[in-house]
Amino acid sequence: MKVITGNNKQDLLIETDTLVMGSVEGDIRVLSGAKLHLKAKVKGNIHLNKDSVITIQDKVIGNIYDSGASIEVIDGEVEGEILIYR
Question: What domain of life is recorded for the organism (predicted)?
């Protein structure tokens, strides 16, 4: 599993199973088949491709665009909308 920590001020592309801790100021795109474990505050949108998986354990200030993913929120919150495209 790939690990990304710290204060990231850029968009992230998740291609493999990844743990993100800290904060992200930018959008996150999770490719098909990848899993994202999010323990970071996100100020931006999250784009989920088909068959991707996300676990949210912090705050997302932005929208989640779901194109056929699995979303789990544990002790976290999404301040924007979860928009489903299937």
Answer: Bacteria
DSSP for 5-32? -SEE-S-EEE-S-EEEEEEEES-EEE-T
Closest CA to 58 of 82, 35, 74: 74
Tokens in use for 4?
A: 């990304």
> Model-level pTM?
0.96
- CA 86 to CA 78: how far, in whole Å? 20
pLDDT tens per residue, range 15-59: 999 999 999 999 999 999 999 999 999 999 999 999 999 999 999
Q: Which tokens in the block code for residue 61?
A: 């200030």
